[in-house]
Amino acid sequence: MQRHRSGGHTAAVRFRTAGFAFLAVHLFLVAWITLRPLDVPWISAANLRPLAGIRADLALGWREGARRIGEGLVLLAPLGVLLPLAGGRLYVSVWGSLVRTVAAGALISLGIELLQTGVPGQVVDIDSVLLNTVGVAVAHLAVVPAARARIRHRSEGAPLLLEEPAQGRTPTITRVGIAP
Question: Which of 51, 77, 132, 164 sits a CA distance of 20 to 30 A from 174?
Answer without folding.
Answer: 164
